Amino acid sequence: MNLPNHLSKKTSWVLVGPMGPELGLSADAVLAVDGGLKYAPKADFWVGDGDSNPALPLPEHFLKLSPEKDISDFRAALDLLPEAESILLWGFLGGRRDHELAILGECHGYLKSNPGCQIKIYNKGVLAGVFLPTGVGRIEYTGSFSLFSLESAKVTLRGDVLYSLSSPINLAPLSSHGISNKAQGMIMTESDKPLLILLGDF
Predict the structure, then answer these.
(1) Pseudo-torsion of CA 57, 92, 151, 168, nearest 10°?
(2) pLDDT single digits (tens) 123-143
(3) Taking a C-beta distance cutoff of 8 angstroms, is the pair 157, 189 a contact?
(4) Per-residue pLDDT tens for 96-109?
(5) What pLDDT, on the 0 to 100 scale, is given for residue 54?
(6) Over 80: is that where the pLDDT of 59 sits?
(7) How far apart are CA 32 and CA 74, in angstroms?
(8) How do strand 126-132 and strand 118-123 relate by DSSP bridges?
(9) Strand blocks (E) in 19-97
(10) Which residues does residue 159 pair with via DSSP β-bridges, in sequence order?
């Protein structure tokens, strides 16, 4: 299924998950994923199988999934957004760890197919992480951060950071090489794979 015409051209989305809190961001378009409807009752679109969705009226546009499926509701939501340039994830952290890991993996896979997109992850209303696509990435941030890739990547790290990588290194999947860094402004990366920057005390 595709999005309705008036939503199909949207390139900036907020996806709202079941962990809350109530959506506190303004958004061009909002997609509630299953129980996320509780925290975004005025969502533009809903997708899910209903297993974590409270008894709330669905929006005009929705995709009801079968509980018997081989992908998550979250993956089904991403599949609806093949040309997004910006995705903010709200309410997907703080639950089951296996679900959190799967969400990170799906984000990585999405960026491999959509190299023009950046994904930001919020936890309890606070920005907790940024997925940067392949190529050059920039985010402005002050505080501690850790840099990861979910597959082997050739990476440089520059900017207003305590520990830079001016020459490319081979960063192994989930390596500790990029943890416990600090930024005082711009974080600039270059990589041949998508990167995940976790902010503060993730």
Answers:
(1) 120
(2) 999 999 999 999 999 999 999
(3) yes
(4) 899 999 999 999 99
(5) 65
(6) yes
(7) 10
(8) antiparallel
(9) 30-33, 45-48, 62-64, 86-90
(10) 187
Q: What does pTM read for this prediction? A: 0.94
Give one word for 20, left, alpha or beta, with left for phi > 0 and alpha for psi -120 to 50.
left
**CATH superfamily name and code, 5-132:** Thiamin pyrophosphokinase, catalytic domain (3.40.50.10240)
- Calculate the CA dihedral of residues 122, 125, 127, 130 and round it to 10 degrees: 10
Binning pLDDT at 50, 70 and 90, where does residue 49 land? confident
CB 93 within 8 A of CB 36: no
For residue 79 the two structure tokens come to: 């599949």
Neighbour count for residue 142 (Cβ, 10 Å) = 12
By C-alpha distance, which of 112, 114, 171 is closest to 146?
171
Close Cβ partners of 196 (under 8 Å, ≥ 6 residues apart)? 104, 107, 108, 129, 130, 131, 132, 147, 148, 149, 150
Paired tokens of 132:
């940067």
Degrees to nearest 5, angle at CA 25 with 24 and 26: 130
113 close to 170: Cβ distance less than 8 angstroms: no
Amino acid of residue 108: H
Residue percentage of the chain with pLDDT more than 90: 80
State both tokens at 179: 């943890």
For the chain, residues classed under CATH 3.40.50.10240 are 5-132
